[in-house]
């Protein structure tokens, strides 16, 4: 079913894509996260994330559409990378 | 038999509040007068699927206009415009009804029009179809394909953009309604479909509901796992036959 749910989260960082508006690195300040019928991925439903710069009008985006299963794997990978990286940069790497 | 020749093009049309909208207009290349269908896309917008469905209706002998309900978010690709609309909470019912009314007027203004116009939609477009059939004038037939939230169970789904549950407007329905549903769908659930049918029956409305086992939501979409060829083929035939009866006769190649 089409949903109108959008989770919005403020970000600090940059993104780069191949679309006209984001062919170069640009700052991004917001992510819109949703779960609905995708536009491109051959799935019934997909986890969509749009990275935008709301302060600049939010017209351009970097977009991804992921299956629910792989989106959850991505969440784990992000958490794992952050955990390991922060340990290492704190000089606490056990390896 | 289908009609083998067609023309499709992007056309301007006068939308809600006089806004200048854009739509895909597909029709058979017949000299016969034909009925028209306003085809309402689902939440992801004016995508490949809706263009394909518009061409399919032309292939079966109807004129079809598929308006881009997110044209106000342009310029931009249809998917980017859909993303911008989603971020704003989606289009309002009032605006969609105005756009549909404008698309209906476009169809009736064409030289090939037999004067009859149906509204058809998928998913959120199915809900908007139900809404259009109950609230707009001069709708000759309506085809709701698995429209969810016709019955609203979560109060949070009543918003300023979508202030009324379509089921509450059923008394205003004054055209035949065709409903296509999958029995494995969660929204609308089989119970919600039954409850909708009970209201239609109680109010003496003309309708036919077809429910299919072994399929869920969106089982017409050939590029998604939900596609079920046997049920989709049978249900498409119901759609074509219904439109033939209500806004036809459709053009046939001979």
Describe the overall structure.
Chain A has 95 residues and is α+β, with helices and mostly antiparallel strands. Helices cover 23% and strands 35% of the residues of chain A. Chain A has a four-stranded antiparallel beta sheet. Chain A is globular, with a radius of gyration of 16 Å. In chain A, 21% of the residues are buried. The model of chain A has no long low-confidence stretch (mean pLDDT 90). Chain B has one domain (6-247): Rossmann fold (3-Layer(aba) Sandwich), CATH 3.40.50.1820. In chain B, strands 1-2-4-3-5-6-7-8 form an eight-stranded mixed beta sheet, with helices on both faces. In chain B, helix 3 packs across helix 4 (124-135). Chain B is globular. The A-B interface holds A 1-4, 6, 8, 32, 34, 36-40, 42-44, 48, 50, 52, 58-61, 63 and B 42-45, 47, 76, 78-80, 82-84, 86-87, 89-90, 123-124, 146, 148-149, 159, 185-188, 216-218, 221, 223-226.
Précis, in short:
The complex is a heterodimer of chains A (95) and B (254). By secondary structure, chain A is of the alpha+beta class. Chain A contains 1 helix and 4 strands; from the N terminus they run ββββα.
Keywords:
A: 95 residues, alpha+beta, 4-stranded antiparallel beta sheet, 1 helix, B: 254 residues, alpha/beta, 8-stranded mixed beta sheet, 6 helices, 32% helix
In the sheet with the most strands of chain B, the strands line up as: 1-2-4-3-5-6-7-8
CATH topology description of chain B: Rossmann fold
Residues in helices of chain B, as a percent range: 25-40%
First and last CA, distance of chain B? 8 Å
Write the layout of secondary structure elements.
The complex is a heterodimer of chains A (95) and B (254).
Chain A (H helix, E strand, L loop, with lengths): L6 E9 L10 E11 L9 E7 L8 E6 L1 H22 L6
Antiparallel strand pairs in A: 1-2, 2-3, 3-4
Chain B lengths: L5 E9 L5 E9 L5 E7 L7 H12 L3 E5 L10 H10 L5 H16 L4 E10 L1 H12 L5 E5 L31 E6 L7 H13 L4 E6 L16 H19 L7
Parallel strand pairs in B: 3-4, 3-5, 5-6, 6-7, 7-8
Antiparallel strand pairs in B: 1-2, 2-4
């Amino acid at each position: 079913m089409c949903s109108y749910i959008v989770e919005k989260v403020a970000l600090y960082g940059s993104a780069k894509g191949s679309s006209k508006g984001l062919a170069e690195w640009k700052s991004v300040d917001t992510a819109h996260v949703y779960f609905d019928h995708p536009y491109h991925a051959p799935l019934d439903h997909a986890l969509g994330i749009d990275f935008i710069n709301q302060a600049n009008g939010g017209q351009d985006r970097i977009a991804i559409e992921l299956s629910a299963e792989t989106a959850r794997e991505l969440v784990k990978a992000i958490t794992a990378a952050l955990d390991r990286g922060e340990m290492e940069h704190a000089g606490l790497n056990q390896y | 038999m289908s009609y083998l020749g067609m023309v499709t093009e992007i056309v301007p049309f006068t939308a809600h509040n006089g806004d200048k909208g854009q739509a895909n207009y597909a029709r058979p290349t017949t000299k016969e007068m034909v009925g028209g269908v306003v085809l309402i896309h689902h939440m992801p917008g004016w995508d490949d699927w809706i263009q394909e469905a518009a061409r399919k209706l032309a292939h079966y002998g109807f004129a079809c206009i598929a308006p881009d309900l997110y044209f106000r978010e342009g310029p931009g690709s249809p998917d980017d415009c859909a993303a911008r609309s989603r971020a704003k909470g989606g289009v309002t019912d009032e605006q969609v009804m105005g756009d549909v009314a404008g698309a209906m007027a476009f169809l009736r203004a064409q030289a090939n029009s037999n004067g009859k116009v149906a509204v058809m939609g998928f998913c959120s477009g199915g809900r908007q179809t139900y809404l259009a059939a109950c609230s707009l004038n001069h709708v000759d037939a309506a085809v709701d394909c698995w429209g969810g939230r016709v019955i609203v169970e979560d109060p949070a789904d009543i918003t300023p953009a979508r202030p009324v549950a379509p089921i509450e407007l059923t008394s205003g329905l004054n055209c035949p309604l065709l409903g296509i549903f999958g029995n494995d769908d969660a929204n609308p659930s089989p119970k919600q479909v039954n409850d909708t049918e009970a209201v239609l029956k109680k109010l003496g409305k003309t309708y036919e509901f077809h429910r299919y086992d072994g399929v869920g939501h969106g089982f017409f979409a050939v590029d998604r796992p939900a596609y079920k060829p046997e049920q989709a083929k049978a249900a498409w035939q119901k759609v074509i036959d219904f439109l033939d009866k209500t806004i036809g006769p459709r053009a046939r190649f001979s």
